[in-house]
Amino acid sequence: xTSPTTTTTSRKTGPQSGTSWIVTSxxxxxxxxxxxxxxxxxxxxxxxxxxxxxxxxxTDEPLCSLHILLATESNGGGGGKIDGGGGGGGQWxxxxxxxxxxxxxxxxxxxxxxxxxxxxxxxxxxxMADGTNAWTATDHTAYTLSTAGCEGALNLMPIFADHVxxxxxxxxxxxxxxxxxxxxxENKGVVYCEMQGRENNEGSLVDxxxxxxxxxxxxxSCGYSAETGGKMxxxxxxxxxxxxxxxxxYYTSDNVILILTGNxxxxxxxxxxxxxxALVLKRRPAEKVEAKEGSRVGRPWVGSFIPPMxxxxxxxxxxxxxxxxxxxxTSAATPVCVSFPSEDESxxxxxxxxxxxxxxxxxxxxHLSLMWDYLTDSAASPLxxxxxxxxxxxxxxxxxxxDVFKEGYHQLWFQxxxxxxxxxxxxxxxxxxxxxxxxAKASAEDDDASFDMARMHTxxxxxxxxxxxxxxxxxxxxxxxxxxxxxxxxxRAGEPYGEEGKExxxxxxxxxxxxxxxxxxxxxxxxxxxxxLAGDASYWQGLMREFILDRPMAVVLxxxxxxxxxxxxxxxxxxxxxxxxx
Length: 582
What we know:
The chain is of the alpha+beta class and 582 residues long. It contains 18 helices and 16 strands. The protein has helices spanning 99-106, 119-126, 151-165, 171-177, 190-196, 202-214, 232-237, 240-250, 266-283, 362-376, 382-387, 425-436, 453-473, 475-489, 508-519, 522-530, 537-549, 562-581; strands at 8-13, 20-26, 42-46, 53-58, 63-71, 129-136, 140-148, 180-181, 187-188, 256-262, 318-319, 336-341, 347-358, 397-403, 407-418, 553-561. Helix 10 packs across helix 13 (453-473), helix 12 packs antiparallel against helix 17 (537-549) and helix 13 packs antiparallel against helix 16. It is globular, with a radius of gyration of 25 Å. The N and C termini lie far apart (65 Å).
């Protein structure tokens, strides 16, 4: 990999741990401007002793933000292998147990050094922060903190890391925070009540069905289709020992990175990071612990099997690639129909989705975002005109979504669809996209049906302007998603090259350049707006053909049911009454 920037690598000894850290320095991302000329505005740290990682990005924003990031995979354990054959054994938990989410809550109940609930938020308030926060995503868990100035974040970083890496995880904490049954037989617990309000809503039910089609659980379960928040039936049977094991598997020093952004000196960050390293070394077992059956091997996700999405005869929900001879696009395929509780039975939701390119196709993912903006972002876009902005609309809104995984997906949502017209959505969608892609001819009087390169230019410039505005208002928000993706899926120094035909191992400079590629998408936008793609309509049409028309498509129809509301309510009352007796 040829380095387009001046990236240097050095060694630095930690004052508390004595670890000889590997330090990689680089100039600031171009997306954050050119005012900071320092060659070490970005510094990456890696401990050869514990594999702990740190990243500091010096920006001029007044708020200093700390992200403690872990890659978390809920595939059931044992590499997702249901039968327990090979790859580290069989499953030891269910993918829908919600272990990433339960841990996110339990971390805040205290650490081995500070075994008291709420101490983090109390200290955060004293450090000019608005408390701590966290989120659980499909492929990672992040713990966050923002303070006015860097001093508070630096002081709290070792304490926050202690909570994340060494929480108490007590039986009483699990009972209170995750799930318990009170004297009336009612299921309670913060996590349980949170999922109770989400599990049966319209968007969640449709999305879960869509993920099951995109990432089928054959021949092994895939964490991308798991409910990482936890399903209520699973939470009712979950126990604290399973949560403790998940923490042992994923909350380890080789699977965490501490990221600090803001007006902070790298030397100050290094001292706080080395304090975390000293804590990890102090609590590391004197002897190597034997791995349990089904334990994690290697980095989460990177070595995981991703099942293919296939369109087969008789398989509901997966449509074969578009066939111009069958313009309706339905063929013999049928959608998956999901019911959701609603008193209004006149409107539903439709989700259609496709598997996308691999993580490494960074430019393609940016181009897909631009393509969907072109198709949906305003009242003048093709899909909005066809489905919403007309005299006989089929739905109230059309909007895209996507996730960049090891092999991600892109998705389109049709909101508030007239129940009587649901079967018209897919054929009309195919018609519009086929015309935009140049596969089908538009009528002579319909000028909006053909690809509009001038409008594509407007979309790209608007996208670029929004990105630069975000980078100016809050630089952290402009870069954090790219940093997260890079940590989970990017190359690591010392690992073999992931690219075919390339021998050798990844260097620290290669790792830093991959980070820059994940974060700095401005050159990709410049190329699309002013480079060789600027006037190439055929490229964008080819993108539609490759990633929409020529791929299997998941189709899920969400239909409202007034009876389902009563069934759920009656079922809950009956179960709680039985629990009260027991």
